[in-house]
């Protein structure tokens, strides 16, 4: 009750900022839904409820969720919500904490992904009689100190979590310090998240280089480091759709300076240009499958922490990564053959015969599915 009251006061104080941010395209759907319940009714009752933060996390859960006939989904961001809607209409934005106690519908099992540790979410789920699972639990080196500072908060959270499925032994020990119990190490579920192709493209006659998941500032530094060759086609895929316009301007300028042709994927020109901007979601995996090399961004400037190499390595595609990938250490430990670069040697790497990537060990997704199905049946029999 005290926490919910505190959440209500935070909500009141945040209202002016929320109203202002809601005017921006990035937040115009998510913030009104989360902070005012605008067009955001409760999910329909389901056997199992999944909650994840954003596009990447929702994508990581898609393979798992597809094993269940009756599930619901909540997320935080607009891109996460858009992705969730592609595989279930029973998707919503998770409201701010003060709304959760009367908004969350009972499910037999509630699965929370990685670090989405909201007290009222787990407490309400537990009060509803759900079996609460924290899946893919991890505590990165960077965030470990901050978690310990708020240990009192996480102890309250873990009182309401029935099972923790951790990524590694190190994560298990850190989670125990925060009060977690009934912990099992199952590996990183993203290592088993082999995305299905949504479309099959033929290999290009030219060498095909995909520059994937770029963030603000990365298109410039990567493209400026590359010396384009006549037998190479480049595709640039920004991480966030709100950056499509800006990234397109950068790519078009690069193409003009280097006397190259340019097109956007959305123009439907046949992908014949030297430089292609991938300005749509859910297509990137299709191009990983036919790429000769992937340059995985989010790792060439500080502060982002890298992206998931498993999505590339499932196709054994050669992979070049930056040196700032602290948030993905566990995943990179599962992949052989990655070349790490600070871009000073990028042309040498692109012109060499790079070895294919290989996934060393995958999480047993079937075992997790069986466990969750058993818990659903247990709750139904109560």
TrEMBL record:
It catalyses: lipid IVA (E. coli) + CMP-3-deoxy-beta-D-manno-octulosonate = alpha-Kdo-(2->6)-lipid IVA (E. coli) + CMP + H(+). The keyword Transferase applies. It is an enzyme of class 2 (transferase). The record marks 114, 190 as: Transition state stabilizer. InterPro entries: Glycos_transf_N, Glycos_transf_N_sf, Kdotransferase. GO terms for molecular function: Kdo transferase activity. The active site is at 57 (proton acceptor). The keyword Transferase applies. Its EC number is 2.4.99.12. This is 3-deoxy-D-manno-octulosonic acid transferase. It comes from Campylobacter corcagiensis.
């Amino acid at each position: 009750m005290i926490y919910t009251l505190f959440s209500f006061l935070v909500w009141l104080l945040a209202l002016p900022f929320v109203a202002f941010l809601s005017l921006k395209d990035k937040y115009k759907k998510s913030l009104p839904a989360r902070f005012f319940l605008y067009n955001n009714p409760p999910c329909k009752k389901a056997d199992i409820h999944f909650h994840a933060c954003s596009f990447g996390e929702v994508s990581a859960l898609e393979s798992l969720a597809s094993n269940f006939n009756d599930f619901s989904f909540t997320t935080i961001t607009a891109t996460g919500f858009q992705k969730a809607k592609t595989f279930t209409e029973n998707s919503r934005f998770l409201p701010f904490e003060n709304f959760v106690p009367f908004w969350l519908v009972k499910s037999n099992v509630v699965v929370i992904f990685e670090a989405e540790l909201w007290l009222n979410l787990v407490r309400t789920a537990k009060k509803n009689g759900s079996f609460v699972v924290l899946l893919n639990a991890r505590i990165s080196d960077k965030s470990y100190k901050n978690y310990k500072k708020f240990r009192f908060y996480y102890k309250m959270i873990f009182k309401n979590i029935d099972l923790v499925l951790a990524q590694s032994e190190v994560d298990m020990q850190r989670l125990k310090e925060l009060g977690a119990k009934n912990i099992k190490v199952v590996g990183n579920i993203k290592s088993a998240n082999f995305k299905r192709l949504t479309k099959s493209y033929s290999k290009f006659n030219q060498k095909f280089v995909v520059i994937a998941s770029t963030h603000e500032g990365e298109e410039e530094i990567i493209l400026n480091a590359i010396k384009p060759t006549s037998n190479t086609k480049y595709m640039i895929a920004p991480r966030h759709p709100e950056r499509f316009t800006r990234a397109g301007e950068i790519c078009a300028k690069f193409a003009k300076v280097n006397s190259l042709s340019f097109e956007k994927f959305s123009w439907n020109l046949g992908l014949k240009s030297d430089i292609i901007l991938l300005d749509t979601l859910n297509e990137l995996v299709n191009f990983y499958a036919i790429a000769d090399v992937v340059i995985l961004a989010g790792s060439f400037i500080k502060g982002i922490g890298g992206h998931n190499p498993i999505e590339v390595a499932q196709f054994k595609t050669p992979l070049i990564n930056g040196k700032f990938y602290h948030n993905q250490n566990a995943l990179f430990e599962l992949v052989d053959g990655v070349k790490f670069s600070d871009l000073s040697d990028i042309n040498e790497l692109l012109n060499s015969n790079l070895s294919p990537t290989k996934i060393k060990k995958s999480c047993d997704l079937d075992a997790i599915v069986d466990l969750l199905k058993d818990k659903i049946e247990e709750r139904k029999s109560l």
